[in-house]
Amino acid sequence: MTLVGKADAVYGKHVFDHKLTETFDAEKYTDSLQWRAYLVLFDADRFTYNCFTGKEKNGEWIVSELNRLTVNRYAEVEKDVAVAVRNLENFIRNYIPKRLNDKEAEEKMLAW
To answer: How would you list the strands of the sheet with 14-21, edge to edge?
Structure first.
């Protein structure tokens, strides 16, 4: 299984991701696997979510606040990401095994 990620910004060993949301929920972001995976993928030590909070009005977003949440690498991060990827692989094998050998699905993934 190959883990892929696109960072919004990388500065040295610091990865940044930008979010646009109506409400900021710090717990939602700290519980996320995204920042852990990005620390591993980019060999980084810090990850910051830049969460722009606002509301949509007449088809445009009006941003009212910027919330920043920074998390740091910890000793077991590689292990935690590996376990999550292994769990995903097991889920696919158990519940949608056809996708593992589906040439058409593979070609669609490569086209992204």
So the answer is: 9-11, 14-21, 46-57, 60-72
